Amino acid sequence: MADALLAPAAAAAMYVASGTAAGISIHQLKKDDDPRKLPTMAVSAALVFAGQMINYTIPGTGSSGHMCGGMLLSALLGPQAGFLSMIVILAIQCLFFADGGLMALGANVWNMSFYGCFVGYYLIWRPILRGKWFSSLGTRSAQRTRIIAASVIGCVLTLQLGAFSVVLETTLSGITELPFSAFVALMQPIHLAIGLIEGIVTAAVLVFIYESRPELLRDVNISDSRVSARRSLKSTLVILAVVVAVVGGGLSLVASSDPDGLEWALFGNEESGYSQNMGLDEDSFGVDSKAADTAGSIQEATSFLPDYAFPDSDSAAGTTVSGLVGSALVAGVAALICLVGGFFRKKRTAA
User: Fold this and answer.
1) Left, alpha or beta for 158 (phi > 0: left; psi -120 to 50: alpha)?
2) In angstroms, what CA-CA distances link 283 with 4, 25, 335?
3) How far apart are CA 72 and CA 67, in angstroms?
């Protein structure tokens, strides 16, 4: 979401909501001392950053979508660490790449992270993975099928919740150009398609990890002797790191140029022969506020690769550099969080 979609009061409320969830997550992670968490958190967070750079076309709509990543991270790291990783990703996108408004960051964290990490994990992932679904298929086949089902159902549901939250937040902000019913009618179906594709991508990644190192996935039963690792932890993480570099540095160059689901709902895509939808003017819409102007000034000062490109340049190299630099930044900050958390845990234990 851009800052113009939110009134300052609504933006502040979403900062409080997301900040509260982050504080609770930090508190609950105090006893987490899994040594695999640091490299897994770094690589998986970088993977989500790189994945978010790939907009995929939604056929026949003139729109595109990109992954959120909350379901993927919570399946690997748990909902608390996954949520904190998503905050790192969205904050780096906002501050260094001017992607999403700074005033709207609290809302973006809630819409893109809270539902995927907490709702998706506790209501979808854990019940399905711990349940007896597909038991007749045999241990390994049943686990793979549960992973696929949980990924697809979870991504579809949580993106629907996130899209609906955007509608509510803009309505509460008093943006009269966006009639509630019309906005819902545009946002929910397009994000249904986006969520389905994200679910398939998430399932593919998690099935690979299950086949490689099943103990990295939350709630997977690895007590059965037929469920064993086929790759070392190091080789699994190296493969994922290579995927990060290929996706962020290479595939990002061929990402769809169609507007994403939110932009498509607001502005349409008449240039490509599709509907104008809400038909808002991209240069003049939404709420004007001093807080948004201040947030925009801060972003302008901090973003060294705005819109994932070199400033005042159309060079494709800017996209490649953005993908690689952004992925490295996300991995580094995520690893630093793990190191700092581990330091304080050891200090408390010693005391």
Assistant:
1) alpha
2) 11, 38, 39
3) 10
What the block records as the tokens of 319 is: 């996209």
Torsion of CA 1, 240, 207, 212, to 10 degrees: -160
Residue pair 70/295 in contact (Cβ under 8 Å)? The answer is: no
pLDDT in tens, 148-168: 999 999 999 999 999 999 999
Q: pTM higher than 0.85, yes or no?
A: yes
CB of 77 closer than 8 Å to CB of 37: yes
- The mean pLDDT value of the chain amounts to 89
Helices (DSSP H) in the chain: which residue ranges?
8-28, 37-52, 70-77, 79-97, 105-109, 126-130, 139-172, 180-212, 233-249, 261-267, 290-302, 317-350
Q: Is 34 helix (H, G, I), strand (E, B) or coil?
A: coil
